[in-house]
């Protein structure tokens, strides 16, 4: 009875190996084990190549950091500076924001727009690396004449955590 259980466990394990290993040449035990060993060697080679590529990319990134240190400080600031654009087209006010992300930025931006009397009709948001938002808004006719585009831009700029005047 114990021998039957041992053989069943062995056969179950071989069956699992057969389902995991992609290239099994024959279905006998020896072939399954041999093909598994070959597959493991292939995986280890892939891991080695990927680690080498990571090391190369790491040195390339270090080189890129060295290049960015050669740039003037003002040039680096301009590349990473936040962008806030507000423009009116017919009845729409279009808003475009690109800045560093921070927790709660989306909610506070939507609240700021609502406080300014702008109603969002369409909005595209991305938070990959930086916070980016393009929104199409409408505003009441009486609000339209009261608020200029620069005031909207400054309010969004302050909301995003940048003090002072927007660039």
Describe this entry's structure for a reader.
The protein is built from 6 helices and 4 strands; from the N terminus they run αααββαββαα. By secondary structure, it is α+β, with helices and mostly antiparallel strands. The chain folds into 2 domains: 2-70; 78-159, 2-Layer Sandwich (Alpha-Beta Plaits), CATH 3.30.70.260. A 4-stranded antiparallel sheet has the order 1-2-4-3. Strand 3 and strand 4 form a beta hairpin. Helix 4 packs antiparallel against helix 6. The longest helix is centred in the N-terminal third of the chain and has 42 residues, at 29-70. Mean pLDDT is 79; it is low at 71-79.
Helices, by number, come to 6
Per DSSP E runs of 2 or more residues, the count of β-strands stands at: 4
Q: What is the helix content?
A: 55-70%
Low-confidence stretches: 71-79
**CATH fold label of the largest domain:** Alpha-Beta Plaits
CATH class of the largest domain: Alpha Beta
Structural class: alpha+beta
Keywords: Nucleus, Transcription, Transcription regulation
Subcellular location: Nucleus
Main location: nucleus
Domain BHLH: 1-43
């Amino acid at each position: 009875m114990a021998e039957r259980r041992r053989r069943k466990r062995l056969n179950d394990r071989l069956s699992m190996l057969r389902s995991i290993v992609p290239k099994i040449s024959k279905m006998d035990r020896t072939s399954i084990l041999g093909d598994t060993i070959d597959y493991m060697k292939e995986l280890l080679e892939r891991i080695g190549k990927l680690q080498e590529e990571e090391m190369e990319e790491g040195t390339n990134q270090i080189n890129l950091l060295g290049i960015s240190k050669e740039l003037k400080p003002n040039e680096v600031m301009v590349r990473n500076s936040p962008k806030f654009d507000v423009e009116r087209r017919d009845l729409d006010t279009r808003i475009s924001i690109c800045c560093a992300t921070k927790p709660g930025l989306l909610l506070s931006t939507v609240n700021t727009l609502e406080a300014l009397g702008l109603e969002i009709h369409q909005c595209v948001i991305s938070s990959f690396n930086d916070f980016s938002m393009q929104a199409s808004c409408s505003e009441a006719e009486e609000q339209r004449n009261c608020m200029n585009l620069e005031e909207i831009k400054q309010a969004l700029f302050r909301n995003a955590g940048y003090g002072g005047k927007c660039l």
